Amino acid sequence: MIDAIVVGSGPSGVNAATALCDAGLEVVMVDFGNVDEQAEQAAPHEPFSELRRHDSQQHRYFLGDDFSGIPLGSVEEGTKIAPLRRYALRDVERVMPVLSDTFSAHESLARGGFGVTWGAGSLPFRDADFTGMPVGRADMEPHYHAVARRIGISGGNDDLAEVFGDCGALMPPLDVDSGAEQIMRRYERYRAQLRPKGFHLGRARVAILSEDLDDRSASRYHDMEYWADTDESVYRPQYTLRELRKRSNFSYEPRRQVQRFVEDESGVEVVTVGADGDGERRFRAGAVVLSAGTMSSARITLRSLDRYGERVPILTNPYRYVPSVNLNMAGVRPRDARSSLAQLSALHAPAGGYQTSTTSVFSYRSMLTSRLIGEAPLAHRESIRIMRTLIPMFAIVTVFHEDRPSADKWCALRPGEGGGPDRLEIGYRQSDEELGHNRASSRAMLGCFRRLGVWPIKAFSRDAGGSIHYAGTLPMTDEDRPLTVDADCRLRGTRAVYVADGSVFSPLPSLPLTFTIMANADRVGTRVAAALRR
Amino acid sequence: MARVAAGALAAEGTVLMRYLTGTDPAAELVDRYVEANQTLLAGEGSPADQAVLAFALDHRWALPLLDGATGLAGSDAWLRQKLFVAAAVLEASTHHVDVFMPGYTPPLVMVGQVGFWGVKAAIKAVLGLPLLLTLRWRAR
After folding, report:
1. Which residues of B touch A330 (CB under 8 A)?
2. Cβ contact (<8 Å) for B40 and A72?
3. According to the model, what pLDDT value does residue A464 have?
4. Secondary structure string (H, E, C) spanning A334-368
5. Which of B20, B94, B110 sits opposite A380 (nearest CB)?
6. How would DSSP label each residue in A159-216?
7. What is the mean pLDDT of chain A?
8. Is the pLDDT of residue A49 over 50?
9. Strand, helix or coil for residue A2
10. A24, A81, A345, A500: least CB-packed within 10 angstroms?
C-alpha cells in the first residue's frame, strides 16, 4: 500500500515528498503537470547582450510564438510571466474557474506549479512573522536549513542576516549589479540614520546558485533568468521532482486532477479525473498531503467535506511596483555580467508600527526597451532613444505589504453549472485603515530609498491578487474549529489529511512566502512520516 | 481577403518600422509584424482609429506628428498600439540592436540627448494634437 499521496508538484509538494521519501515511506505524487518540453530549449545558454546581437531566433523567447511578450495596454512588471513560461497558465481557466470582480487570481497546473516562474526570493520568516500561528521560527529552523541545502540559496552576511538569521546553510552571495552596488555604497553612508527607522537593506537572498550543487551549475551571470532557464542556477521545483523520480520509493502520476479525498477506517483515498478528459482513477494511502496551492487545496477540501457555499478566508500581499531612477548610476558604466532577478532586499519594520513592508530591487537592463515606451506619453521614435539612454539608471522597486484576515476577504466553492467545473468565488476588500497603513508604509519605505538616491517615478498598485502570494484558506491555529489545521498541519476533522502549501499561513507577512512554504512542507513531511510510523 | 489584408499590413508595417529606425525593415520583420497584428490587433479599430492610421500612412510627414499626439491621447489609440507592436518586433531581432540596446552614456551627453529628444517629442505632440483631433472629429 502507498504510505502517502502528495497532491501537486509545486514548491510545497516536492519538499513534502522529499521529506516523506527520506523517511523511507512509499510516496505517490498526483499532479496535473503541464509541461512544455520545447519551451526551455528555445533560449541558448549565452549572455543576454550576446543573444541580442547574434540570435536570429530571439523573438521566440522575447516575444513568444503567440506574441504574448508584447504587453499592449499598461506595462506589467517583473511578475509578468515571460513567453516561454506561459504554459504555466494553461488549462487553469477551463478546469479551475474563479468568479470575482475584486480579486485577480493566478494559479498554475504546471509541473512545478508557479515555481516554474517564481522570482526566487528566499527570506525566512522572523519569529514575529509567526504571530497568531501555533509554530514559531524555532520549529521551522531545521527545515529552513534542510531546504536551503536542498535547493541552494545564496545570501550575504549583512544587515539582513542580523534580522533574519543565516539559516546556517547559505551559499556565498551572488555578485550584485552596478546599480545595486552603488545603492549599497550609499546605504553604508546613511545606515546610522536609516536603521533606527526600522529600515534594513542587504543583498537579496535568492534561490540562485553561486556554487555548483549536485547536477546544477552556478550562475554565470548571463542576465537571462527572467526569460528562460538557460542553465539550472535558479531553483525550480521540477529539479527536485527529477531527483525524486530516481528513487525507488517514489512514483509520479501526471495528467491527473485531484477532485476530492475520502477518508475511511483504513486510510484516505483521492479521487482524480484525467487532465485530458479521461475517466476517474483513485489512489489510496495512509495519508494525503495537499500541496495543490492555496486556492486549489481549499477547493479540494471544501468539495471533499461538501461545504459548498461556505466562506473560508483568503489572504494576499498587497503589492506596488515602482519604476525608479537610481541617481547613483549617473556617470557609472554598468557591468555586463549580472543576474536579472532581485539584487537587493529591504525590510521596513518601524518599532511599534502596524506594518512591515518588504522590498526587492531589480535593474531593468534585460527587459526590452520597447516595453517601457508604451508607458511614456511621448512619440515612439523619441521615446525609444530616451529610454535607451536612461535604462542603465532605472531600478524597479517592488513593495509588498502584509495581510490580515477579515470578513471581507473570503472564498467559497460554488457548484459547477451544466456539468461544468466547480467555481471558486472570491471577495476581497481591504479596509480604509489597511489601505491607509499600506500607503504610509510605502511612503516610509520609498522615503528611505530616496535617501539612498533611488527616486520613484510612479507607483503602480496591482490589483488584489496580483502579487501571486496567496495564503490563509485553511489556517494553522490552536483553536479547534472546522476548516483549519493544527500545528502539524493536519486538517481538523480528519485523521490523515494534511495541508502543506500557503493555505495554512495566517496572517500573511510581507516577506516572500515560498521559502517558508517549502520549509513548512518539509516539516509537514516529517510529521506525517512520524504519524504513519506510530 | 486574408491575402489582401496581409498585404496591407505588410505595407503598413514597412512604413511604421521605417519611421522608427530610419531604415527599411528586413522582410522577416515585416512578416513578423503582419503575424503580430493578426494575433494581437485582429479587429479593425474604430472609424476614428482607421482615419488616423490611414492619414498617417498616406501622408508620411504627418506620421511623426500623429505619433507625438497619440502619446498624449492615450495608449489605446490604434496608431499608438501598432507603433508599439512595430517597435517590439524590431527590437527582438538582430537587425537594430544599437537602436534599442541600452548602454553607457556620460552624464552631460545624457542630459543633452534626453533634453533634445524630449523637446522634439513635445514639439511633435503640440503640432500633432490639432491634426489628431481634426481627423477624429471628421471620422465621427
Report:
1. 107, 110
2. yes
3. 94
4. CCCCECCCCCEEEEECCCCCCCCEEEEEEECCCCC
5. B20
6. HHHHHH--TTTPBPPPPP-HHHHHHHHHHHHHHHHHGGGTEEEEEPPBSB-SS-BTTB
7. 93
8. yes
9. strand
10. A24
Query: Cβ separation of B92 and A62 shorter than 8 Å?
Result: yes
For the cut 70, the answer to whether the pLDDT of residue A77 exceeds it is no
ipTM surpasses 0.90: yes
Of A330, A368, A379, the CB nearest to B91: A368
pLDDT digits over A407-463, tens only? 999 999 999 999 899 999 999 999 999 999 999 999 999 999 999 999 999 888 888
All 3 cell numbers of residue A489? 498541519
Confidence of residue A78 (pLDDT cuts 50, 70, 90): very low
Q: Which of A370, A371, A375, A391 to mutate to test the interface with B (most CBs of B within 10 A)?
A: A370
pLDDT, tens digit, 9 for 90 and up, residues A6-25: 999 999 999 999 999 999 99
Q: Do A389 and B71 touch (CB under 8 A)?
A: no
| CA distance linking residue A376 with residue B70, whole number of Å | 11
Cβ count near A161 (within 10 Å): 17
Pick the residue from chain B with its C-alpha nearest to A65: B36
CA-based nearest distance B109→chain A, Å: 10
Shortest CA gap A277–chain B (Å): 28
Smallest CA–CA distance, residue A375 to chain B, in Å, is: 8
- Minimum-distance CB partner of B94 among A54, A377, A386: A54
List, for residues B46-60, the tens digit of each pLDDT value: 899 999 999 999 999
DSSP string, A71-129: --SS---TTSPPGGGGGGGTTHHHHS-EE-SS-------BTTGGGGT---B-PPPPGGG
pLDDT score, position A419: 87
Cell numbers representing residue B61 in the block? 510627414
Q: Residue A167: pLDDT band by 50, 70, 90 thresholds?
A: low
Contacts of A311 (CB under 8 A, 6+ apart): A410, A411, A412
Measure CB to CB from residue B84 to each of A374, A388, A390 and give the nearest one: A374
pLDDT one-digit tens code per residue, A130-152: 999 999 999 999 999 999 999 99
Q: Compare CB distances from B94 to A55, A67, A334 and report the shortest one's residue.
A: A55
Count other C-beta atoms under 10 Å from residue A88's C-beta.
25
Q: Which chain B residue is nearest to residue A365, measuring alpha carbons?
A: B102
Per the document, the length of chain A is 534
